[in-house]
Write a structure and sequence with these properties.
single chain; 434 residues; mainly alpha; 18 helices
Amino acid sequence: MEVKKIGLWTSTSLVIGNMIGAGVFMMPAALAPYGGISIFGWLFSAIGALLLAKVFGKLSVLVRHKNGGPYAYTRAGLGDFAGFIVAWGYWISVWVSNAAIAIAFVSALSVLFPVLETNAIYAVLVGLGAIWVLTWVNSRGVRESGKLQVVTTLLKLIPLIVIIIGGLFFFDIANFTPFNPSSETPMAAIAITAAMTLYAFLGVESATVPAGNIENPEKTIPRATLLGTVVTTLIYMLSTVVVMGMIPSDLLSHSPAPFADAMAIMAGEWGRDMIAIGAAIAAFGGLNGWILIQSQIAMATAQDDLFPRVFRKENKKGVPILGLVIGSILSSIVMLMNYTGGLVEQFKFIILLSTLCTLVPYLFTSASYGLILIERKYQMKNKISTVGIGILSFFFSLWAIYGAGEEAVYWGFLLLLAGIPFYIWMKYRNNKNN
């Protein structure tokens, strides 16, 4: 049976939807202590994200029709072992992050349904319901998942666009004085806010992972990746600036729901409910997109015999169904940890690990990009700019890993090394079968 593929707009919505999650609704409050200078932090991380978008776009042309995104590109340039390390860490980080997104979904809904905040059983049931409903949607094919992604992406953008436009009528430039209210030097403040905003761009590679399920991938993927990153950047920066201009920094820094406060200024209390709905949709759409990514990365690795064969078993819709279910089971287990008193700290610890494992693939992909250009003696129209993009994205990725913090780097590195015995076992089994 021929598997229906997705086009430009669905691929773009996958990029936007996976990057814009519920976390963006808290970003203005996190940046408020640094004031207007945080805009430069956004700019710095946005430039880095655009560099990565260009690298992923170019690699989708150089390594054609290969599922797996960062894994496929790393393996093409650096070989099986590096490819496995990227796939191992990336796959773990995705199903762990899915648990966190499910919790964010429940948290957003708790504004509308306070019982979710006081009753852990209801909260768990709603979170598990979101994971498994979206697992079912994804089991029906990439195209069906893509349709839902387009709808949720459009819906999550509505409240953000309303604030960007409507907030201009309540904007007060005096809220940006002083420009740097923190005790940090201007350069330090920019570096700190850039590190904080960087994580909002995780997911820039989303369109590259299901490459085999995308129509005309050598053209669609670069366009979707760049377009999705540009749209996301504009939404992030404009909405943050407008909210900062509406609410004084001393109040904003202590706000538990800055976008809700901004909407309340514009439309009263019903505006808070609108933002809560928007945050819930943002989390729901992000969860849908990342469940798709989770199954595709495992399948791509299994097709190269670096993951167990069970991950490449497809249903009649062309979906790696067992890999999809295994990933959602693991996400469910991690999510339950957050609602188990003695395991809350362990849950936070696992999230810390997953952050690093999401960033490492960017570093490996950037390095692989340079090697692929050299090995294939790629005929570049603008050699300096083409190579320069790879070099800059590599150092940006290195800086991003540094910005993740000492604890994340230490434990994340150990998590990646923990995959080595698994790699040895897969190689042994493959050699034995051959």
